[in-house]
Amino acid sequence: MNRKTNPTDKSVRNLVARQRRIEKARAGNQDATIRLIARDILGIETLDTRDSDGLDFHDLAVWQIRKALETAYEAGRKTAR
User: Fold this and answer.
1) What is the pTM of this model?
2) Stretch 42-63: mean pLDDT
């Protein structure tokens, strides 16, 4: 039987994979966690300055910023334990 992939299943798998990468980074260092949050939640490829407005400035939705801040807060909270 040929089963089509449900888009929701793919979204859930991507979310779980992202959460695993975040958890792994939390166990590592702060810089890795920050870069991971920037890439996976905010969609920012690099945090390095590239001296170009088109590359260094990003339009972000408030819900993306909220999720990034919540993730950073949670990472800090877990590290403090």
Assistant:
1) 0.64
2) 96
